[in-house]
Design goal:
66 residues; 80% helix
Length: 66
């Protein structure tokens, strides 16, 4: 049961990080817009590389003669 204490610390840090991030994201000025643009960039990038990865895996198992 030695792993219980480090896991509690990790979970507590994640909860605190979410609270601090929410305070910054809901701040004044352009902060909400910057968070939205950053989120869209990350989602778009993950989507593109996900599709490319699925295509590469699919081409490994396809039997096309070139």
């Amino acid at each position: 049961m030695d792993t219980v204490t480090p896991m509690n610390v990790i979970v507590d840090n994640i909860i605190e990080m979410n609270e601090l991030f929410t305070d910054v994201a809901m701040g004044d000025g352009l902060a909400p817009l910057l968070v939205l643009v950053g989120t869209l960039l990350v989602v778009f990038t993950l989507g593109v590389f996900g599709v490319l990865t699925l295509g590469a895996i699919g081409s490994l198992f396809s039997s096309s003669s070139s």
